[in-house]
Amino acid sequence: MKYLITGRNGQLAQAFIKRFEERSFDYTAPDEAHLDITSEVKVSDAVMQYKPDVIINCAAYNLVDKAEESPETAFTVNATGPANLARAAALNKAVFVHFGSDYVFDGNKESGLYTEDDATNPLNEYGKSKLAGEERSLEELDRCLVLRLSWVFGQGKQNFIYKLTQWAAGNEYLKIACDEFSVPTYTGAVVDVTLKALQQGLTGRYHLTNSGFCSRYEWAKEILDVLGVRKFIRPVSMDSFKLPAKRPNFSAMTNAKIAGLLNISIPTWQEAVRSFLRRA
């Protein structure tokens, strides 16, 4: 089995690369100079040259607020890019794995966690671009696995845990939103479940998160408690930050469908945070 990974410098791609190295998998993870997913020609050339059995797309435009200023950039990377990869996968009879976002929801659901059957209604340009990427990927080929993620964390600097530790080191106290809820999701869990799903031949669209949900404030408290950092955290409204992009207040998704199909139990977000911080 041969794997092609995009977005090699991101925290999710790095988690896949680490696992593949540990297991001596046959993979390639070109840098953007050699595989620009927004170029159909470059994608086609790379796929034809390597001939992967599985393409795992970890490339994404994740600058939520900047996407409000330049939505065309977000759509090019998050929608056109996946479509190019999915089309190349279809032509080469490969499986295509693409990662979506909880920001496809508006946060107005009041009867439980979001399921795969709930209606989407993204509030910002980033969410719209991610939803377009999902739809275009699924339109291009049947052997497509779309996995929606939320609040992803792992090795690297582009995640809440790293940013929180930096804020804690440089400030007397912290202000963290107490009215924004979702599910912190560990890259290690994403890799585990994705590989299990591929092994079982799963296709379609699923929610892949750790179990449970929390507010940003609760997540921050858990992180600092595990690290033994004593810092006052003041719970505040998300609106107080006056960010350019509107976020859903509640976008927590349930992983029950994929966990049931794979007959697995996905660790809670608390277990995942502790596991990650103790290894870091």
Most strands sheet: 6 strands, parallel
**CATH class category name:** Alpha Beta
N- to C-terminal separation? 30 Å
Strand content: 15-25%
Would you tell me which CATH topology applies?
Rossmann fold
Give the structural class.
alpha/beta
Count of structural domains = 1
User: Based on the structure given, which CATH architecture is correct?
Assistant: 3-Layer(aba) Sandwich
Keywords:
six-stranded parallel sheet, Rossmann fold, alpha/beta, two-stranded parallel sheet, globular, 280 residues
Can you describe this structure?
With 280 residues, the chain is of the alpha/beta class. The chain has helices at 11-22, 40-50, 66-69, 71-91, 125-140, 160-170, 187-199, 216-227, 256-262, 269-279; strands spanning 2-6, 26-28, 54-57, 95-101, 144-149, 152-153, 173-177, 181-182, 185-186, 204-207, 214-215, 232-236. The strands form four sheets. The protein has a six-stranded parallel β-sheet, sandwiched between helices. A two-stranded parallel sheet has the order 6-9. A two-stranded parallel sheet has the order 7-12. Helix 1 (11-22) links the parallel strand 1 and strand 2. The chain is globular and about 55 Å long. It starts with a strand and ends with a helix.
